[in-house]
Amino acid sequence: MRPFREALLSLVRRPVLAALSVTAIGLSLFILGLFGLTAHNISKALAAVEEKVEIVAYLRDEIDEAQLRLVRSEIGAFPEVESVEYVSKTEALYNASRELAEFSDVFPDVEVNPLPASLEVRLLPGRRDPQTVGTVAARISGYEFIDEVRFGREWVNRIHTLRRIAGGTALIVGGSFALVAMLLVGTTVRMSIHARSTEIAIMENVGATAGFIQRPFLAEGLISGLAGGALALALTFAAYRLLDRAVMAVLWLPDLWIAAGIVGGGVLGMLSAGRSVRRELKGLYAI
Amino acid sequence: MIKFRNVTKHYPRSGTALADASFHIRKAEFAFLTGPSGAGKTTVLRLVHMETAPTEGEVIISRFSSTRIRRREIPQLRRSVGFVFQDFRLLERFTAAENISFALQVTGANRSAIRSKVMRLLGHVGLASRASAYPAELSGGERQRVAIARALATDPLVLLADEPTGNLDERASLGVFELFKQLNALGTAVILATHDATLLRRHPETRVLELEGGRLVYDSGSDAPRPSHGDSSIFQLVRDGPPMQSGAKEGSAIERGGPAP
Ligand SMILES: Nc1ncnc2c1ncn2[C@@H]1O[C@H](COP(=O)(O)OP(=O)(O)O)[C@@H](O)[C@H]1O
Ligand SMILES: [Mg+2]
Predict the structure, then answer these.
(1) Which of the two ends of chain A, N or C, has the fewest CB atoms closer than 10 A to its terminal CB?
(2) What is the predicted pLDDT for the residue at A50?
């Protein structure tokens, strides 16, 4: 408890610098929080979209029963494939007329059904990324009785790109803030050490252990970091509420991410403090 | 208990502060460390306190040796070696009692023991009634007593005092010196560095180690005869009184100390 009491006293004695440190840590983690919010929602959306991602392979009309069964079972045996559904010409027409009323007016007769039969290929979860979808689609289109293959490549590609851009931006902006935060926390701790140099000299003189002397300063970094983490959480939550109410429905972050963010703040603060402690107190009991 | 074995200390810029010094101070012994300014007195004390390591030779304090001690053992050594400075080095924002309990807290004494021990220490140094006074409210002699109580907080085997009376008037000096004598009588060894010849003259029975230019020129505790070249030594003056002619060197102990009353 003593290190924390001492650390709080030190911080209170330099309120402006302490507030700056906490704000800097808070902002760097807030940026990470915004990214987290984006990434989390994109991931969820992506999962929902990917759930629907399938490869539709249109069959030539002249395919016969035996050939159909062969193609189906071969595609079904691909390691990436979860299921293969056969949609007959009749079903295709039924589906189409259900979705588009005009369709049934134009093609009322099943005998002149222009729609091809198709295979709807679903990939296993985790194998639905653009690259895998592309290669599987290419492999399917190589079959003789397959007329045409369609899949939502564009859409999937775009979502993945968006996520990468958001991640890169957050890393650069958040990283710069984190750097500033580390410098500020380091400076605050260094000033605390200087302010207490007389006490430190006396502690060394009477034989306090090095750990005892160093701990309050590390605690100072830890407290700044945790406070910064809490600030970031508040800011991120505010941003979430604003988005959710005013722009579109978004999901809040998972608890684990929140905990990781706050712990991350503490670690960031401790590391910055550790740097100052190592540099300023390296002479402790050196002979 | 404290042994110097052929100890030499070089400082990179200023050269040799101590040259091939050997002596032994026993448990509960009282020794003056004397010699003119720059003779190496503080260096000896800093070596005992292991604030600095000898360039050559070995310093042994109880179970610790300068050649083997590890950095993390030094706090332990410091607790068995109390240090008192000429300028007291009290924390101004703490009361007398708090200055002492600070030393107890930082060396991990338990809370309940601290209060009673602080009062006992203040009693030892004769300041029981000034417990809640701040250093600024205390006289020089009283401040030095607080510093002494603080140095005693860890129950050291030895007290090192570097010119402890250097900032005090004569009356306060005598009081502080008497306190060292009393503490010594209770079993704590004392090494008192001073160039105050008056103090030495008053206590001719006390062990004297005399340094000059980093050399141990005289040790009243050794059997070796006094070297003949040491005519200007304080010890000689203590015995024989000041020389009739003003032949003492600039800045030497005798000049600073002034004539005996
Ligand atoms: N930390 C140091 N660095 C360099 N030189 C020092 C240091 N401490 C003492 N000296 C030199 O060592 C010599 C002895 O100094 P010191 O032990 O302080 O003497 P005294 O205490 O007897 O006056 C002096 O010449 C002094 O300049
Ligand atoms: Mg000195």
Answers:
(1) N
(2) 63
